[in-house]
Amino acid sequence: MNRKQKIALTLVVTISIGLFLGIILIVMRLFDVGIPKIAFLFPVVIAGSGGIISITCFKKDKGTIIFDERDKLIDKNANLAGFGAVYLYVIIMSFLPIGILGEEASIPVTWCPVLLIGAGFCQAFAQSIAILIQYGWVGKDVEK
Amino acid sequence: MSKSNLTNNIRRLRFENGQMTQQKLADKVGVTRQTVIAIEAGKYAPSLPLAFRIARTFAVQIEQVFQYQDDDPQVSASDTNI
């Protein structure tokens, strides 16, 4: 497993945990359990921790050649997947308030930065999934 | 990264060339070991320059390393008529 795969796997795990916690918090808020708004930062921090872990824990790959034409192709496809996912995300998130609240309703301006942060996570998640799929999830690099 | 009709003899050629390791072949052709593994397994079709570099490493013709099987037999038949 190369550095890029380790980073991708870390991001998928942390963003998934963050998403799961976020959904739990939203459900709890819907049932008026009494959760402060600041609690919603917790899943964002968890999801964002993947980036910090990646920078600090995963060192550069060993060997003279660490990047080649296959890596370039995988990067290109992963970027495309990330862009496509963000595009889809923005479309869905733009129409979601109309669908849920109705045409006459208004939403707080805090919706904009939330949308931006969500787009970032969406891009990272889709790109990581694409990297893992293209490399073959665990990278069975066994000498035969 | 789709599987193609491309097959190869890289593994056999490696063993015929003094039990060459995947890492040694990767270093010689300028790619990572993961890429050599993917090519050997038929999971990645290399670019034409890389295919030539692999063939030259083993000092053989490119057709002796890579073979392409056509799905459509009519295409092959028409090709031979030209």
Structure description:
The complex is a heterodimer of chains A (144) and B (82). Chain A has 144 residues and is mostly helical. Chain A has 4 helices and no strands. The two termini of chain A are 17 Å apart. Chain B is mainly α. Chain B is 56% helix and 7% strand. Chain B is built from 6 helices and 2 strands. Chain B has a two-stranded antiparallel ribbon with strand order 1-2. The longest helix of chain B has 10 residues, at 48-57. Chain B is globular and about 40 Å long. The N and C termini of chain B lie far apart (32 Å). The model of chain B has no long low-confidence stretch (mean pLDDT 86).
Task: List the defining traits of the structure above.
heterodimer; A: 72% helix; B: 82 residues; mainly alpha; two-stranded antiparallel sheet
Provide a brief overview of the structure.
The complex is a heterodimer of chains A (144) and B (82). Chain A is mainly alpha-helical. Chain A has helices spanning 3-30, 41-57, 69-101, 111-135.
- Topology as H/E string of chain B? EHHHHHEH
Count of DSSP strands of chain A:
0
Quaternary: heterodimer
CATH structural architecture of chain B:
Orthogonal Bundle
Name the chain pair whose interface involves the most residues: A-B, 22 and 20 residues
The global form of chain B is globular
Strand order of the largest sheet of chain B: 1-2
Overall shape of chain A: elongated
